Amino acid sequence: MRIVYGLWLFYIKLIIPSLVVSIALSCLMTAASHFLVGIGVSYIFLTPTFHYLTYELRNPNEYYFYYNIGLSKFILWTNTLVISTIIGMLFMLI
Amino acid sequence: MSELHVDSIRKRFGDKQILNDIFISCKPGQIIALLGRNGSGKSTLLKIIFGSLSADNKFIKVDDRKIDSLYQKRKLIHYLAQDNFLPNHVKIKNIIRCFCDTKNAALIMGNDLIIPFLQKKVNQLSGGEKRIMEILLVVHSNVKYVLLDEPFNGSSPLHIEIIKELIKEHSKNKGFIITDHDYKNVLDISSTVILMDSGNTRVIKEFSELIDYGYLPATSERTQHP
Question: Among residues B190, B223, B219, which one has the least CA distance to residue B206?
Answer without folding.
Answer: B223
